[in-house]
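Q: Predict the assembly, please.
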Amino acid sequence: MIKARGLTKTFQINKFTVEAVRGIDLDVSSGEMVGFLGPNGAGKSTTLRMLTTLLRPTSGEANIGGCDLLSDPAGVRRLIGYVGQNSSAGVEYKVREELVTHARLQGLSASAARTRVGEMLEQYDLAGLEDRMIGALSGGQKRRIDIVMGVLHRPPVVFFDEPSTGLDPQSRSNLWNHIRNLRREHETTVFLTTHYLDEADSLCDRILVIDGGRIVAEGTADELKAQVNGDLVTLETSAPAQTATAAERLDGAKEVTVDGTTVRFRIARGDSVLPGLLRELDRNDVDVFSVRTSRPTLDDVFLTVTGRSLRDSETAPAFPGL
Ligand SMILES: Nc1ncnc2c1ncn2[C@@H]1O[C@H](COP(=O)(O)OP(=O)(O)OP(=O)(O)O)[C@@H](O)[C@H]1O
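A: Predicted assembly structure:
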């Protein structure tokens, strides 16, 4: 349903060149839900804007449902819905009038537009708000209006750009249910960008990790987690240096780090090696205040494939191409 080969986008700002997207290949099947995960400035929105015909690629090719991005942009637009980062709904309009106008622009007749908007308002828990001004709605309600605007015409492919940014946890989980329903009810293909690992983990069949304009990892959440070697063991002790030395001696222990009183390391089957380590520390009069083992997360995947944590990357340079 979505196919791209060698997609690139280079921006020229004065004498600087920003290589925002550096050759991306994509194959998304019909009905698949794919997450495009990466830190700020990784190239997610630029890729999305190219795939939705909002931005012309510098090179490469792509098609959506068989319609070529460059030679048939109108065909692409008929097949897609796009929910951008910023709301496109007019804040000074009433909910129903804005949505009906939007449905009419999508080619629905006046009566079909009214019927469709009524159904969507029910479905997206917006019934009763028909005559409220959009500007006076809550963040979660506005986000649901954005989604309704993106899917009113029942497109087979919907692109979401960071759908839940700025929402509280309850609104996020509510929004996720609406995104899941799109596939359940209409077999919609969903392609979404996010920097929330839990969002990608919870919603997506497949995750593409993008960093510096390139796809650096790809797979299901489980496949990606399996690339990270071992569980993360975290200990708080009275003698961190001694604890780190003991951890380093364990067969297969990796990435041993000390941070204050906290010692962390990775090892396969962390639960089974801990008793021996704790006995040794006890024999050496080291007090252990707490112990935790955790299975790899998508954050660990990001760290493994890019060498940086996704959170640290929030402060990554704005111009990775330089
Ligand atoms: N119109 C533009 N002109 C110049 N540079 C741009 C433009 N749009 C994006 N960039 C640069 O391209 C790179 C990729 O930006 P992009 O918005 O695609 O990243 P992103 O992964 O979507 O980030 P975020 O999570 O912050 O939205 C960044 O370095 C950004 O500064």
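The chain has a mean pLDDT of 89. Residues 11, 13, 18, 20, 38, 40-46, 195, 318-320 surround adenosine-5'-triphosphate (CB under 6 Å).
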